Amino acid sequence: MSKNKDAYVELRNITKSYENVPFLKNISLKIPHNSYFCICGPTGSGKSTLLKIIAGLEKPDQGEIYINGKKVNDVLPEDRGIGMLFEHMTYALFPNLSIYENLIYGPRVRGVAAEESKETAAGMLQLIMLTERAKDFPEVMSGGMKQRVALGRALMTGAKLILLDEPLGALDAKIRLNLRKELVNMVKSVGDLTVIHVTQDIEEALMVSDYVAAIFGGNILQIGTPEEIYKHPNSIEVCSFFSTSNFFEGSVTGLEDENVVINMEGTTIRVKNRAFSKGDKVVIAIRATDLSIQKHRTSDTNQLGGKVLRSQFILGFMRYEVELETKKVIVVNQRYEEGTAFKENKTVMITFFPSNILLFPHPGEPLEKKVIT
Amino acid sequence: MPHIEIKKLSKSYGKVKAIDNVNLEIFDKEYLTLLGPSGCGKTTILRAIAGLVQPDHGEILFDGKDITNLPPDERDIGMVFQHFMIFPFLDVWDNVTYPLKIKGKSDAEMEETAGKALNLVGLSRHVNEMPEDLSAPEMQKVGLARAFSTGSKLLLLDEPLSALDTKFRMDFQHELRKLVKGLGLTAIHVTHDQSVAMNIADRIAIMRKGRILQVATPMDLYYQPNSIFVCNFLSNSNFIEGFVEKQEEKQSVVRLRGFGPKIAIPTDKWERRKRLVLAIRRNEISFGYEVSSKTNILNGKIVNELFLGDKTIFHLRLENEDIVEAEVLTKDIPMSMGHEVTLTFNIEDVMTFEYPDNLEDELALE
User: Fold this and answer.
1) Test the B interface: residue of A43, A145, A172 with most B CBs within 10 Å
2) A152, A231, A281, B126: which could form a disulfide with A362 (CB 3.0–4.6 Å)?
3) Does B1 touch chain A (CB under 8 A)?
4) Which of the 8 DSSP states describes residue A107?
5) pLDDT(A115) > 60
């Protein structure tokens, strides 16, 4: 997090409980000035609550909130200088106002000169690609358009901090994909803006943000660039949530040159890694994209036999669930090529590439408790 | 043995044509999905089949018999809804047996059919639970069991998976198809989700603005879309403009606009100078090591890289300034990659369409 050291938003030791159940557990976080920052985690991880605390819509039990260097714990939401777009208010446009009037409402209320706000609104209409629909009313707009207007309105408040809670959540899958790109473009072209975006959509988080905070069970486990989070996850939780990975248990049986030799549920594998010693219990993570599926055995090592339980076609890619001879079920993701898909119940060989394997210390409890899907 | 024919069906709400002269045939024991963006009319068709919407024109035949004016309760249909529609004050058993009670079935008959249906969906041990104690997938299974226990051979499903999380959706989708096939039902399933439709259906009817554009098996739709809209809706594709420069045997050469690169296309059906839209699926473009007479080559500059985790999308700017998007598995990205790259794709994978009056309109998803 070295790009810009000034934090625009800082949280110190935030805790929050509901009916004595701790929901946010001592969260400290610095969000750099002018960054696009995603808080990403599964349902119930506390991400929306955290955002509401920054917005002032919820009070923390303990801890301090700073925005632009100023403590805001006792500042009302409307005085915190924030533009907001929350999932449930996605379409909360004024139905009796045109798109243009919806956009200009914020500046008008703040007493911005008519000429100036007119200019900003024209620019914003261009940015949200709705110049020709300026006079239309929300009721005749599609979901994606309304979403862009809502976003435009948040940006028009003139706030330097924008909070987005699942801003694309209510849209059709295909439209979401397109809007993601537009979202980034809009934010970047406004400039001087810090964005905090909460989502459970991993691809969305990785694609739009400068930094991602991974949140699970009320704890932030890792903060990093999208590549760091994906390529160097610091825990089983982060690894399992941000990629489709298969987890195996094993123990280190020896060391060889740069490698550790591991007995992985009965199979011997070698992994380039010297952070472990003989006898250590480890968890081995292999990404679903680092496995390949073949008809026949092609090598004596790094292959496991299995049977296809399910095969799924997802926009040009195949997702297979394969039951290994050990009865363990793993996931394999591949590019779809015409005529090469494996049908259900087919016997196959799975090859894995030892260079892409991640190792974690064994948590000492069942893996299911750590793996987040 | 439900075999359904929809003939010239239309329905308007005010000035808006919800469905516009729709013809569709659904065969016995077929799993058909109606797929399209919000507001395309797919739900209206489903509701017309159920008898919940009275069409303005046209007819609906069940096994050759006109049922257009038959009330819903005489149509013998099982129906499952997006938001479950189960009674919150009744337990699982009473929810599932509700339609049977209304039909005046005996207790013994109810035990038999409802018991079987609950067993099928894996809820036998939950019969005494109240809906509030069930998870979303379990609630939808109650909805499904209720539809099964009617004994109807025709099952109508309105976005039955969309209230479920992604993970459950995949499991449920798989089970749903298996159950429908196991019971030998005819199923009509409305969805806006391409991935659900592609994996669950025998055939897909793809809709836009009240009309059916194409009906085909999932893979036929994917590989032989009859329109730019269908192609765009079912894949993440690049749509680029070009002109036919040369016709060869079973192939032609297209020059991209602005004196761009030449692309070979797998057809000789377009005449010389014809203005075309070429569609190339994003995921079929790769960092090519295997260049052959069967591949096209694109040289360009990478101007943007979108990292999605398992996948990465590259924006490549060609010499004519066109931008082409390629979606690759992150692990397949070469270790050392400059800004100038060569990407390849198979000639067979290029789809071609006549250039439309308004390309933007053809690509609009809403």
Assistant:
1) A172
2) A281
3) no
4) H
5) yes
Query: How would residue A235 be classed by pLDDT, with cut points 50, 70 and 90?
Result: very high
**Which of A95, A116, A96 is closest to A104 using CA atoms?**
A116
Angle at B185 (CA atoms; ends B182, B187), nearest 5 degrees: 120
Tell me if chain A has a CB within 8 Å of the CB of B236. yes
A208: nearest CA partner in chain B? B306
Asked if the domains B4-230 and B238-363 are classified in one and the same CATH topology, the answer is no
% pLDDT > 90, chain A: 52
In this structure, what are the phi and psi dihedrals at residue B42, rounded to the nearest 5 degrees?
-65, -40
The boundaries of every CATH 2.40.50.140 domain in chain A are: 244-369
- A175's CB contacts (< 8 A; 6+ apart) are A143, A144, B37, B365, B366
Other C-beta atoms closer than 10 Å to the C-beta of A74 total 8
The count of C-alpha atoms lying within 13 angstroms of the C-alpha of B20, restricted to the half-sphere facing its C-beta, is 13
ipTM value, please give it: 0.85
Say whether B307 and A313 touch across the interface (CB within 8 A). no
Bridge partners of residue A16, in order along the sequence: A24
| CATH H-level, domain B4-230: superfamily | P-loop containing nucleotide triphosphate hydrolases (3.40.50.300)
B7 burial type by CB count under 10 A (0-12 exposed, 13-18 middle, 19+ buried): middle
Give me the pLDDT at residue A4, please: 44
Residues B216, B221, B226, B231: is their CA dihedral positive or negative?
Answer: positive
Top residue of A166, A185, A313 to mutate, by most chain B CBs within 10 Å, is A313
Interface of A with B in 305-324 (CB under 8 A): 310, 312-317
CATH topology of domain A7-238: Rossmann fold (3.40.50)
Whole-number pLDDT of residue A116: 85
Prediction pTM value: 0.87
SS3 category, A79: helix
Task: Chain A: give the shortest CA distance to residue B52, in Å.
Answer: 25
Domains of chain B by residue range = 4-230, 238-363
Tell me whether B287 touches chain A (CB under 8 Å): no
Rounded Cα gap, residues A285 and A215, in angstroms = 20
E-state strands within chain B: 4-13, 16-26, 31-35, 57-62, 65-66, 78-80, 154-158, 186-191, 203-208, 211-216, 237-248, 251-256, 262-265, 275-281, 286-287, 295-307, 311-317, 323-329, 340-346, 350-354
According to the model, what pLDDT value does residue A90 have? 52
Residues of chain A numbered 202-241 and touching chain B (CB < 8 Å): 202-203, 206-207, 226-227, 230
For residue B282, count other CB atoms closer than 10 A to its CB: 20
Q: Give tens-digit pLDDT for A186-221.
A: 888 888 899 999 999 999 999 999 999 999 999 999
Tell me which chain A residues have a C-beta less than 8 angstroms from the C-beta of B192. 172-173
Decide: A174 and B237 in contact? Cβ < 8 Å: no
Q: Which of A177, A289, A313 sits opposite B199 (nearest CB)?
A: A313
Query: What residues of chain B score a pLDDT lower than 70?
Result: 1, 289
**B304 in contact with A at a CB cutoff of 8 Å?**
no
Question: C-alpha distances in angstroms, B72 versus B52, B53, B78?
Answer: 7, 9, 11
B258–chain A nearest CA distance, Å: 26
Closest CB to B331: pick one of A202, A290, A336. A290
pLDDT tens, residue by residue, A268-314: 888 888 899 999 999 999 999 999 998 888 877 778 899 999 998 88
The answer regarding whether domain A244-369 maps to CATH 1.10.1040.10 reads: no
Class of the CATH-defined domain B238-363: mainly beta
Cβ atoms within 10 A of the Cβ of A197, count? 25
A363/chain B closest Cα distance in angstroms: 25
> Would you state the pLDDT for residue B319?
92
Residue range(s) occupied by CATH 3.40.50.300 in chain A:
7-238
Angle between helix axes B136-149 and B92-102 (nearest 10 degrees) is: 20
